[in-house]
Amino acid sequence: MSHPEKTRLVWTDASWRRSAELWIRERLGDLGRELVAPVEQPHVRAWGTVMRVRTDGGPLWFKASIAPLAYEAPLLEALAAHAPGRVPRLVAADVSRAWMLMEDAGTRLTDLHPDGPPVEMWREFLPVYAQLQLDVAAASADLVGRGVPDRTLPVLLDGLERVLANDRLVRPATGRGLEADELRRLRALGPHLAEALDVVGALGLPDSVQHDDLHAWNVCVGSGGYSFIDWGDASIAQPLLSLYVPLAHVGPGRAAEARDAYLEPWTAVRPHGELVAACDAAILLAQLTGVLKWELINSVLSDDERTGYEDVIPKRLRHLLELACA
What we know:
By secondary structure, this protein is an alpha+beta fold. It has a single domain, classed as Alpha-Beta Complex (Aminoglycoside 3'-phosphotransferase, Chain: A, domain 2). It has helices at residues 14-31, 72-82, 109-112, 119-136, 140-145, 153-164, 167-170, 180-187, 190-201, 244-250, 255-263, 272-298, 312-325, and strands at 40-45, 48-55, 58-65, 90-94, 99-103, 107-108, 208-210, 219-222, 225-228, 235-237. α4 (119-136) runs parallel beside α11. The longest helix is centred in the last third of the chain and has 27 residues, at 272-298.
């Protein structure tokens, strides 16, 4: 199987690069800034690319995404309005092309701690992220109206059924697709998942933004404290579903500390013990939002473009089975 970076992608096409750099220069002109170094392209994936733009007014970042992820621009605008300083400031955008130009958000935690940040740092930034969710919750319905995916509890099971019925997603031509018995067991999870939906829903927490990729690569620290980048996987969902990714990265030995730090702001809504009791159900349901974000990405990628990622959904569904049977 070829490495995904070797697949021919639009983001590395010379004519696309020229068009993107022209747009960047025009936006810099609007801002009264000039380039001081060639535009760099350090990050390329099938679903998007990021470019570093060094200017006389400081560094900026350009991001281009596939069309289904164009909601990231209005989402960033809303997050900046409701939680100032917690996301990179958007200085220009072309939503029709899913292009954005953003201020630098600071130093990524992985650059400060290449082997992973200490748990003390997770305990610092997770409640900051939880407070962001609290602050933006009132705008959730508006954000769905502006294109942010709706992955609230009532739609999750329908989304799972839709994915399981799509052979291209669960039985890709390459990679290890799901076996018939695995598909049968997944379809039989309905009552178990419905119980998890009831457990999380009974908390009465407001739907809010759910980053769905909250690890140390997507957390920055600067003069204003912690900020969060790369919202292309985000959705509107029950907020506790955000716990799955950070706890998977912290590791089991310190997961309880990180979990409790994240939950602390939510104790303004529900008692700590009730929140803890619902966390396993939330982590189980987070597998569904994880599957659905990949369904969205796959909706516009050709088989060639998704080379190297075609078995992501089967792997996530197998993990769902593992968690459900634990």
